[in-house]
Amino acid sequence: MPLQRETVARAALHVVDEVGLDSLTIRRLAAHLDIQNPSLYWHFKNKQELLNCMAELMLTDFFAELHEPEPDQDWADWLTIYAHQLRTMLLAHRDGARIVAEADPSRSTFFEGFEWALNVLRHAGFDGNEAAIGILTLQNYVLGNVFEVQAHPFSLASDEDENHRSALRLSFDEERFPNVAAFLHTPALYSSAWASTQFETGLSLFLDGLRAHSAQEHSNKLDGENS
């Protein structure tokens, strides 16, 4: 049967999982599909177009698992689900954060989820600009966290590989930078489990900040109405 664009893009994701995004080439992908190189150019003019389709498939999988908030669902609870599922999607593929970040963002699937998230904050009382900045900041936070996990050598080691993690510790003047030293001596710092904990802590801080801002704006509005 003739190859479909989705089949080729999913095969490309599989190749990336094996060798990484930098090693994905048309030649390697054609070999993986057991076809000749020119056949792929019927579907994608270049690697960027292929990357765009790969990202759209990832986003489609993400939004298939995401649902619009229930009428009585707390906005921060929904955003927590949004962030968790976005992170899970990016981590599902090697270099997943790079694939999405380097793809053309003007894809229909991206705007669908962005619209949902904006509506959640708008309905919670945020104005349009605040809602947009809030969602973009959340997405950038998730992307940054996954970039770190996928780029840092500790992500390739098991949580029990103490020798590998110890080799990654930085050499610096601990007396001059005592707070940094205390942080870098955190147990299991160089582990995938710690990366997940760090993500959860940062997400909570971000959402707490949005809650505080929302409460302050609501208080200011009431003061203005009563004055």
Describe what is shown at a glance.
By secondary structure, the chain is mainly alpha-helical. The chain has helices spanning 5-19, 26-33, 37-40, 47-65, 75-91, 96-102, 108-123, 128-151, 162-168, 178-184, 192-226.
Describe this structure in words.
- The structure is a single chain.
- With 227 residues, the protein is mostly helical.
- It has eleven helices and no strands.
- The protein has helices at 5-19, 26-33, 37-40, 47-65, 75-91, 96-102, 108-123, 128-151, 162-168, 178-184, 192-226.
- The longest helix has 35 residues, at 192-226.
- The chain is flat.
- The termini are far apart.
What composes the largest sheet? none
Radius of gyration: 22 Å
Number of helices: 11
Q: How would you classify the helix and strand content by structural class?
A: mainly alpha
Uncertain residue ranges: none
How would you spell out the order of helices and strands? HHHHHHHHHHH
Overall average pLDDT: 85
Overall body shape: flat
Number of strands: 0
Distance between the termini: 73 Å
Give the % helix. over 70%
Q: Approximately what portion of the residues adopt beta-strand conformation?
A: under 5%
List the helices and strands and how they pair.
Blueprint: H1 5-19, H2 26-33, H3 37-40, H4 47-65, H5 75-91, H6 96-102, H7 108-123, H8 128-151, H9 162-168, H10 178-184, H11 192-226
Throw out a few tags for this protein.
mainly alpha; 227 residues; flat; single chain
